[in-house]
Design goal:
This protein is 5% helix and 28% strand. It is mainly beta and 76 residues long. It is built from 1 helix and 4 strands; from the N terminus they run E-H-E-E-E. Strands 1-4-2-3 form a 4-stranded antiparallel β-sheet, with no helix packed on it. It is elongated and about 60 Å long.
């Protein structure tokens, strides 16, 4: 992981991009989201309590298989 960078420098995220890594964006209340580098900041979730303040590069979590769907129940 890298050090936190002020959100004002988000426009420079392209020089930090690396394969297998994503950006963690956080606000002053400790809430965070993950994003790829895109020209404009991604929209914050509806439950965020404030605007983003910093970002950093973190390893992308490996994908996981989901559990199979259960078979439908028969109806009488």
């Amino acid at each position: 992981m890298t050090e936190w960078i002020a959100i004002e420098q988000w426009g420079e995220c392209t020089r930090l991009e690396r394969s297998g890594f994503v950006f963690e964006i956080r606000n002053a209340h400790g809430q965070s989201l993950f994003s790829m580098c895109i020209p404009e900041l991604p929209l914050a979730p509806f439950d965020w309590k404030g605007p983003p303040v910093a970002f950093r590069l973190v390893p992308e979590t490996p994908p996981q298989h989901s559990s199979p769907l259960p078979k439908p129940q028969s109806t009488p």
